[in-house]
Amino acid sequence: MKRRAIFWVPLAVAASILLGVFAAPLFWAQVRPIESALIGQPVPDFDLPPGLAGRPGLSSLSLRRGEPHVVNIFASWCLPCRVEAPQLEALKRRGIPIDGIAVRDRPEDLARFLAAYGDPFRTIGADTDRRVQIELGSAGVPETFVIDGRGIIRHQHIGAITPGDMATIVAAYEAAR
Amino acid sequence: MRRGRLSGTKLLGIVAAGVMFAAAPAYADSLLPPAEYANRQLPDPAQEAQAKALMETVRCLVCKGQAIADSDAEMAGDMRSLIRSRIAAGESPEEIRAWLISRYGDWVTYDPRFSWATAPLWLAPVLLVLLGLWLARGRFKRRRG
Fold first, then answer.
1. Which of A63, A158, A164, B126 is a good FRET partner for A102, with 20 to 30 A between their CA atoms?
2. A49-98 pLDDT per residue, tens
3. Smallest Cβ distance to B30: which of A35, A38, A77?
4. B30 contacts: CB under 8 Å, gap ≥ 6
5. Is 1.10.8.640 the CATH number for B2-113?
6. What is the ipTM of this complex?
7. Percent of chain A with pLDDT over 90
């Protein structure tokens, strides 16, 4: 009887290895967001022209001038960006300026989006060919980076900022001072 | 009975919807046309071959489980265009791969570098063959004796 039980042990071990080591990560890979490898690293060089007439664009130089920055990667065609708009407004009301990077956008669509969902942006850089988004290691819209005064990326938030995420974003901004 | 079955179907629907939302990455396409070299080959066939080989081993970020060479996602097109223009500008495919890894981590490449994390991929087969030989050796010995 005991020997019979021992006979099944290798099969059980093999099955748990198959499921635990190979199958489970395959499933996790589907739902796990892809984080930027640049957290803790200096922000790469870029210089984006304004996405909207009368609004400054965004360059990496302005991110190294002593104060921390919240950089929001968004787009007028992005639905979750509408969901996080009130939270960006709330950050602005708390005195945290938002610098925007508009991905693959047109000025007329941007203007319509900002008129409809609010405009918390101090600057808006136009990342028309998505080069800067890829340069930052960002894999989608919306994403939000907190960058400290020396231009080091300190925090990345993937997806829309919900009311529940506010404390984390504010804390990351305060810590980046 | 009927009520129970209905709620069962509903539950299944909710679970299915949950799985779909969890599995389907939320990406949408912009209103702008595809990037310049997203779907256009480089004029130099040798450079295009280099770019193609690299694109077949770079993971699509929004579709997952697919190389950017095979993906219709807009972001994959932008990455193809970026790779083709960098190759046209004289960068080597391995330089571009290293640059992508520095942005997205090892995850982005289907041709992983040798590191402590990837060592089992290369060493496990060798170790298993050695283990097999060692086990077989025991059997041969017994037969001889």
1. A164
2. 999 999 999 999 999 999 999 999 999 999 999 999 999 999 999 999 99
3. A77
4. A75, A77, A103, A104, A105, B74
5. yes
6. 0.84
7. 82
